[in-house]
Fold this sequence. Notes:
The chain is mostly helical. It is 84% helix and 0% strand. It is built from seven helices and no strands.
Amino acid sequence: xxxxxxxTKDDLRITxxxxxxxxxxxxxxxxxxxxxxFGEHKYxxxxxxYEKAIEIGTTSLPSDHPTFVQMFQSMAYVYKSxxxxxxxxxxxxKALEIEKNRPKLNxxxxxxxxxxxxxxxxxxxxxxxxxxxxxxxxxHGFKMKNQNYSRIHAVQSAxxxxxxxxxxxxxxxxxKR
Length: 177
């Protein structure tokens, strides 16, 4: 390799590293803008900027990077806020898929994601699916280092609510016979 080729290779490596840093900085800025729009209840703008942030992320980060978990969760919160639960579920599942496959499980985050998936299903009156998600989330809740007992209790209450609804449906269907 000639000296010029070596310099060119070094220049390309440095330039590539610089571009990656700038893309990550831009990604952080987009996430900040998204959070501001979400906080101001400007949901369509939040969605637009989250989509751009995700697009930037795909060019600058590996597909299993923890930043995607945060972005997908945030996008899901926006959709949940506008009561588009099917889209919220789509993004919660994307976040879950990445988080479940990480070498070291973050039980607190998994607890949170499963719980939100459960509330989305419950909002759609899909109580059996909600119940399964709540139960899975609760397993992670009990594995958290710093257990949030009020959140765990809230999920236990949600589980009981789903069971009660299922019982009510069973009673109604047997009365019709």
